[in-house]
Amino acid sequence: MRNDQNDARELAFRLLTRIVAEYIETGRRPRGAGLKTELQRRTGGFSEALLGYESFGTFLEAAAQSGFVRLQRIPGEDIEVSLPGSAQNVSQPSVPSLMPNTGRSTYIRRDFWKCFLDWTPGWPRLYDPRNDKAFMFPENPSPFDNAEHARLRAAWQGMPQSFIEIPLISMEKQLVWMQEFASNLDEPSRSVLLKVLDTARPFGAFTQVVRETPRLTRDWSNFRVERVTQLIAQWLNEHGLKVSMEAPPLPPLVSSPTERAIHRQSRAVDEIRTNQIASNEITEQIVRTRLHQVIDRMSLPDLLRLSVPVQYLILER
Predict the structure, then answer these.
(1) What is the b/e burial string over 13-40, where b = at least 16 CB atoms within 10 angstroms of the residue's CB?
(2) Which of 44, 43, 61 is nearest to 52 (CA)?
(3) What sign does the CA torsion over 150, 155, 157, 163 have?
């Protein structure tokens, strides 16, 4: 039973690293809440409780302690996840750099990244200099409009001169970047990527190949961020905007004394329960209590997969 759980944990950690790599490659910031949702979507109902963790945060901490990921806490918000070595200057391809080496990964502001790279058609992309905020919204009203979209649309239509249009970085431009990145790699990566870029669906094929190798995932992400940074800097200069495009650095994840005490208490309770089972001191009440605790935290897909004797479903007690 313990070996089965350890195997399940390792599989979950490996899936987590793959999702984090995909987020980084596509320019999204891997945050705890979003990662849990993605894990649930991919597995049909991921539950950290079934792996023996009290919360998704402790699952992430276990993944970090096992060397699969690195964590940074965002004050008052969430946990950001990265891959080990993603901020280190190791084994990088010989591609031209457009930014100074700062010794850490560069994160572009989320509002800028979305407006420059989100290809949703029919959505104006605007920058509000007064509030230093970039945003996008559907140009035409629809039954699915929300209050924020309606507010932004009304503000733009009422005073269009107060906003600056943001140019979308086209697919064609990014295909050129992919060609440039691939051309500067060593073999066999160079030939493989150039070949897939010559297919009918180059974006998907390129992304799939890059995701299969953590080093390529990291290097392509850094390369792409450099190119996006250059274009955003150009746009800022053209409009005389003296604002930062870079997201602020995140402090390291450090558990508070209260959190550490809770974790110690949780581990102590688990040890007591394990000792009870090992010494055959387990009772029906312990089993029922534990099952109720687990079931209360399970998602609907997990509940639907439970194996229950039919008689309990059709007979009243």
Answers:
(1) bebbbebbbbbbbebebbbbeebbebbe
(2) 61
(3) negative
Looking at residue 229, its amino acid is T
Out of 143-152, 174-183, 188-197, least confident range? 143-152
Tokens for 274? 């394990």
- Give the C-alpha distances (Å, rounded to integers) separating 305 from 15, 95, 142, 308: 21, 49, 39, 9
Q: Which two tokens stand for residue 86?
A: 């993603």
Please indicate, yes or no, whether the overall pTM of this predicted structure exceeds 0.70.
no
8 A C-beta contact, residue 123 and residue 137:
yes
Altogether, the residues listed in the chain come to a count of 317
The number of beta carbons lying within 10 Å of the beta carbon of residue 88 is 12
Structure tokens at 93: 């391809």
Q: Which of 143, 124, 132, 106 is nearest to 229 (CA)?
A: 106
SS3 at position 162: helix
Predicted confidence (pLDDT) per residue in 289-315, tens digit: 667 666 766 666 566 667 666 544 444
The three-class DSSP label of residue 257 is helix
Cite the DSSP H helix spans in the chain: 2-25, 32-43, 56-65, 110-117, 147-158, 171-183, 189-196, 202-211, 214-238, 257-278, 284-297, 300-304, 310-314
